[in-house]
């Protein structure tokens, strides 16, 4: 199932994302002092997601030197906590992404192929860079687990965009 794609340069709808294992939520899209990089992953059932997020975790301090990093899936809290414990991730790991939130981000939404995969719909991967005012600077959306941005290149590009206050591209 597809969703309308978000427009760069426009404010994203504010969404509250619950942080696994903590009594707090992160307001993505709300005005703040720093840029935000939001990564959406498929969930506990996806081994490619685990490799991608583990690579992110190894360079997390480089990311957080320039921006906040938020990671979310549609998984329930228990699955998110199990992954966080198993892999030792240090980023804010959020859970419970709803179908309306998936669609607001323009994500591809999938149904499980079997109960062995998972038991509910889930979002395919996405990466979103938001300016401090909540406007969307960059969008990378995939319709499946195999296509992911290169984290080193993405970070380098984001540092350049932030430091040079680059305008949004690809608006037409």
Automatic annotation (TrEMBL):
Q: Please report the organism this UniProt entry assigns to the protein.
A: Antarctobacter heliothermus
What Gene3D superfamilies would the database entry show? Glutaredoxin
Q: Which GO terms describe its molecular function?
A: antioxidant activity; oxidoreductase activity
Q: Which domain of life is it from?
A: Bacteria
This chain belongs to the protein called: AhpC/TSA family protein
Q: Where is the Thioredoxin domain?
A: 6-160
